[in-house]
Design goal:
By secondary structure, the protein is mainly alpha-helical. The chain has helices spanning 39-45, 48-57, 63-75, 81-89, 96-108, 119-144, 158-167, 173-186, 193-202, 208-219, 227-238, 244-253, 271-287, 291-309, 319-329, 337-357, 389-395, and strands at 23-26, 31-34, 37-38. It binds coenzyme A (COA).
């Protein structure tokens, strides 16, 4: 008989539920590895396409493998017309994450690979999702502004094509390179909430699109993908403050939190935040919008000072802190910051889905089925006295 272990851990913090070969975090030392490679090296030297290939296939591509992969992604960019029709009929004030979450199952229904349970077919589905999520995000943004979606440009890279579809202008090459680096930085992060949601769904043998739909739902929550937009809201709110230190002291004194600081796993500087900090300084200077970086640095400095006074030296900027000014300077509205996160994380989600489906890191696939302790109404094993609808009215207390 299978052994049952009676351990309760609300929120599953620190509980190991699977093996993975995709990414690794050392929170004490601020280290993040994708398939064994340091995030810093990947962000400095590799494109998001190389990183997506790495995450999906296990190692960095050779030149011809990368060319073939990029070509596949480019060929898969076109979104079926019936999906665009749905977008055109959505209320214009619909939240972009809801719209995106609704579109993914629509992409599934016309995919000939949908029910082919081979690794190759799943990689092809992953490529289509990586290619089409940016197209959907940009299309929705234009449609809600009363504009028509634009066709992809095959001469452009993944990030350049997104900026073109989004802004409708020839993309700024340097900005596209920065966006590409942001996509690399957000591509995977072990068993975060959305990745776990994807893996849990496909552990039932549901298809990849069902898993990714769940991942988008989990990412839409403000404790997960929504934090950078809230950082930017905070920066807007304090833009005209003369006394940032006083504002923060007040905020923290009232039990508030500084958005973009602190992390459930990193107890030192998030390695991705270091990159984004440098990027927001450089990008802001080049575009002539330095004030957002300066403001962020002031918040960081005053926040660290306040935390230090309380003996909390492990609350430091996380990936969302400096990605907020970066995306703002790139012209990304607040409600599209999380969809951009999804454009990147979809690579990680798909890799985890494949790893889960084909048990690539453990002996065999397993259906996730945790237990919950029942703390509700209980009248013994024979059940509570059942009363019909008519008598329930009179006997149930108000
Ligand atoms: C991310 C986060 C939820 C992780 O927190 P955690 O490691 O689970 O720790 P807790 O939420 O239990 O917080 C531990 C303590 O630090 C404080 N703390 C943590 N992050 C804080 C922040 N950003 N601002 C103010 N206080 C913070 C908590 O108030 C708590 O204090 P207490 O022990 O006096 O009650 C938390 O740091 C946070 O809310 N950050 C802001 C939101 C954010 O940036 N999210 C994106 C994460 S990538």
């Amino acid at each position: 008989m299978a052994q049952t272990v009676n351990v309760k851990n609300v929120g599953l913090r620190g509980v190991t539920v699977a093996d993975t070969k995709i990414s690794f975090i050392d929170g004490e030392n601020g280290i993040l590895l994708y398939r064994g490679y340091r995030i810093e090296q990947l962000a400095e030297n590799s494109s998001f396409m190389e990183v997506a290939f790495l995450i999906l296939n296990g190692d960095l591509p050779k030149k011809d493998e990368l060319d073939a992969f990029e070509n596949e992604v480019r060929k898969a960019r076109e979104v079926p017309e019936y999906v665009l029709e749905v977008l055109k009929n959505c209320p214009k004030d619909a939240a972009p994450m809801d719209v995106l979450q609704g579109c993914v199952p629509l992409l599934a229904v016309s995919d000939p690979d949908l029910n082919k349970e081979t690794r190759e077919a799943n990689v092809r589905m992953a490529i289509k999702l990586i290619a089409r999520i940016p197209v959907l995000v940009a299309a929705w943004h234009r449609i809600r502004k009363g504009l028509g979606p634009l066709p992809s440009d095959d001469s452009l890279t993944h990030a350049e094509n997104f900026l073109w579809l989004f802004h409708g202008e020839k993309p700024d090459k340097e900005m596209a390179l920065d966006l590409d680096t942001c996509l690399t930085l957000h591509a995977d992060h072990t068993f975060n909430a959305s990745t776990f949601a994807c893996r849990e769904v496909v552990s039932t043998r549901a298809h990849m699109y069902a898993g990714v739909t769940a991942g988008i739902g989990a990412l839409s929550g403000s404790l997960h993908g929504g934090a950078n937009a809230r950082v930017m809201k905070m920066l807007f709110g304090i833009e005209s403050e003369n006394d940032i230190a006083g504002w923060l002291k007040n905020e923290l004194g009232g039990g508030g939190r500084i958005m973009g600081m602190g992390h459930a796993v990193y107890k030192t500087m998030d390695p991705r935040a270091r990159f984004l900090k440098a990027m927001s300084a450089r990008l802001g200077k080049r575009i002539g919008q330095e004030r957002w970086h300066e403001l962020s640095m002031q918040v960081e400095k005053c926040g660290l000072e306040e935390f230090r006074k309380k003996g909390k030296t492990d609350i430091l900027p996380n990936v969302d802190f400096y990605s907020a000014p970066v995306y703002h300077i790139m012209g990304i509205p607040l409600d599209l910051m999380t969809p951009i996160f999804a454009m990147s994380r979809v690579a990680g989600w798909c890799a985890h889905i494949i790893e889960e489906k084909f048990a690539e890191a453990q002996e065999k696939p397993a259906l996730y089925r945790p237990k919950a302790e029942y703390v509700g109404q209980y009248c013994g094993l024979s059940g509570c006295t059942y009363e019909g609808l008519e008598t329930r009215e009179n006997t149930r207390p108000e």
